[in-house]
Specification:
Elements (H helix, E strand, L loop, with lengths): L2 H4 L20 E2 L1 E3 L2 E3 L6 E6 L4 E7 L3 H17 L6 H17 L1 H12 L3 H22 L3 H4 L5 E3 L2 E5 L5 H14 L3 E5 L6 H12 L7 E3 L4 H9 L5 E5 L2 H11 L5 E5 L5 E4 L5 H13 L11 E5 L3 H12 L20 H16 L3 E3 L16 E4 L6 H4 L6 E7 L2 H9 L3 E2 L1 E5 L3 H10 L4 E4 L14 E2 L2 E2 L12 E3 L1
Parallel strand pairs: 1-5, 7-8, 7-10, 8-9, 10-11, 12-13, 12-18, 13-16, 15-16, 18-19
Antiparallel strand pairs: 2-3, 4-5, 6-22, 11-21, 14-15, 17-20
Helix pairs in contact: 2-9, 3-5, 4-5, 5-7, 11-12
Bound molecules: NADP nicotinamide-adenine-dinucleotide phosphate and magnesium ion.
The site of NADP nicotinamide-adenine-dinucleotide phosphate has 30 residues, from helix 9 and helix 10.
Length: about 475
């Protein structure tokens, strides 16, 4: 409720989460063959807190030789131990990882927010518990693969090279590692350059779990290290989550090699509000869909479509709700919108704000929103009166920026929602189940949420159509990319 609608102006006292219990080392090495080893490159890079721009730690920069060492470790671990273990024994290790994530969840949440800029509420209530749930869920499959693929001979693939982005660092590591281990593969994982710290903490936890050395290797570095992983002859399976541009490079590199590949790429989801929708609930869902996690969400509901008869009401309520959003210190428990992940990303978002204004769109940002002086921040933003041809509608911004279009008929909104290179997710708000089922069959999106948004569960598959990639992660479907069936 805004001050306009309630007459109250709630001021929250600061409620910062304690950070002294979170142990971040001054310097991190590469986690290869069960040990932290100095990089052969002899190089390190700094990783910062995007909310303060202060350096948190120095992290090893893997080069091609380091990647090679990690791949050899993963291959040896596969041949010597992991492929010989029974499913039930693999499960014990995976359960152990799930439990230590739960035990150390407070520390992991703080490190995730410090290194990535996301509001502690998100990392504490969503990222870390969902990461633990993924390990629990896939641990459960490890000895039941014969039920997942009945009447098939099931073989693990070998070494999985896994490359992840900066928006859900620990959760993406869990999405990648858990199904790979459950199906009997070993792993080399590279987190994004800007958010390596929770993956490195996970490496420490995996060491505590006494996993056989080399089953999980975690190496840090830049795009070149990712490319070396993709091109390495010992990599049998490539799992990539990131931008569509890099996804295309990887697909070209893998073509003709026989390596298995899944790509989870960009998105530009339509969130569609019909006139019979529960409007207040829809407004909450719109806010959650795009401002959650600073809009750093591939499935963010970044294109809002409102049926014309209710557009004024929805926009007015949305503006009022935006006035109450708290942008600021990610470690404060009241914060709704934390820091943008990097200077580079903030510059990209700001350039799109200019593009939208130059395209002649009406811009709205809450006037009571003061951004901290230091760090990378962006106000929640609406572009009202957008058209299909606008660049801010067609291109992925990956920030707290929502374009608004109106529509009259179902046919029109389906046409507009699908007329985009991406197809990762969509949202539908209506009172009518029949309308929901009609739309779910016609929207070209991997996930369609109805009367809710951004709901995740390890049992549900997730993945895209078109330039959003291919293959599914999560659920029973998430096992398939990690096995050979005959
Ligand atoms: P990105 O630049 O594509 O990077 C993703 C990862 O790939 C990083 O670890 C990156 O390393 C690495 N990389 C860069 N160049 C590479 C190359 N040539 N070969 C192999 N690996 C390479 O993406 P981002 O900017 O980190 O993340 C944002 C993007 O991810 C958005 O487009 C978003 O939609 C997408 N995303 C998709 C999903 C999904 O499930 N579909 C989920 C989350 C994010 P560096 O960090 O060193 O650059
Ligand atoms: Mg990058």
């Amino acid at each position: 409720m805004s001050t306009e609608t309630t007459g109250f102006n709630w001021e929250y006292a600061p409620a910062p989460e304690a950070i002294d219990h979170a142990k971040i080392k001054k310097q991190y090495e590469l986690f290869i063959n069960g040990e932290f080893v100095k990089p052969l490159s002899k190089k390190y890079f700094e990783t910062i807190n995007p909310a303060t721009e202060q350096v948190l730690s120095k992290v090893a920069e893997a080069n091609e030789k380091d990647v090679h060492a990690a791949m050899i470790a993963a291959k040896n671990a596969y041949d010597k131990y992991w492929k010989k273990l029974s499913g039930a024994d693999r499960a014990k290790y995976i359960y152990r990882i799930a439990r230590v994530i739960q035990e150390r969840s407070r520390e992991l949440a703080v490190i995730e927010s410090l290194n990535g800029g996301k509001a502690i509420r998100e990392s504490r209530d969503f990222d870390i518990p969902t990461a633990a749930n993924h390990f629990f869920y896939y641990a459960g499959w490890a000895d039941k693969l014969a039920y997942a693929f009945p009447n098939k001979k099931i073989e693990s693939v070998g070494v999985a090279a896994q490359i992840i982005p900066w928006n859900f660092p620990l959760l993406m590591a869990a999405w990648k590692i858990a199904p790979a281990l459950a199906t009997g593969n070993t792993v080399v994982l590279k987190p994004a350059e800007s958010t390596p710290l929770t993956a490195l903490k996970l490496a420490e936890l995996i060491q505590d779990c006494d996993l056989p050395p080399g089953v999980v290797n975690i190496i840090t570095g830049f795009g070149a290290a990712g490319a070396a992983m993709v091109n390495h002859p010992l990599a049998n399976k490539i799992a990539f989550t990131g931008s569509t541009d890099v996804g295309k490079i990887i697909q070209k590199a893998v073509a003709g090699t026989g390596k298995k590949i899944t790509l989870e790429l960009g998105g530009k989801a339509a969130n569609i509000v019909f006139e019979d929708a529960p409007i207040n609930q829809a407004v909450e869902g719109i806010v959650n869909g795009i401002f959650f996690n600073q809009g750093h969400v591939c499935c963010a509901g970044s294109r809002l479509f409102i049926q014309e008869s209710v557009s004024e009401e929805v926009i007015q309520k949305l503006k009022a709700r935006m006035q109450t959003l708290i942008v600021g210190n990610p470690l404060d428990k009241n914060t709704d919108i934390g820091a943008i992940n990097s200077k580079e990303q903030l510059e990209k978002i700001n350039s799109y704000l200019k593009i939208g204004v130059n395209e002649g769109l009406e811009i709205y940002q809450p006037d009571n929103c003061n951004l901290p002086k230091q760090g990378f921040y962006c106000k929640p933003t609406l572009f009202i009166g957008a058209a299909q041809s606008n660049r801010v509608v067609q291109e992925e911004i990956f920030g707290p920026v929502l374009t608004i279009q109106t529509f009259r008929t179902i046919e029109e909104v389906i046409e507009k929602a699908n007329n985009i290179p991406y197809g990762l997710s969509a949202g539908v708000w209506t009172d009518k189940g029949s309308k929901i089922f009609n739309l779910t069959t016609k929207l070209r999106a991997g996930v369609v949420w109805a009367n809710t948004y951004n709901k995740f569960d390890p049992t549900s598959p997730f993945g895209g159509y078109k330039e959003s990639g291919f293959g599914r992660e999560g659920g029973l479907h998430g096992l398939a990319p990690y096995v050979n069936l005959s």
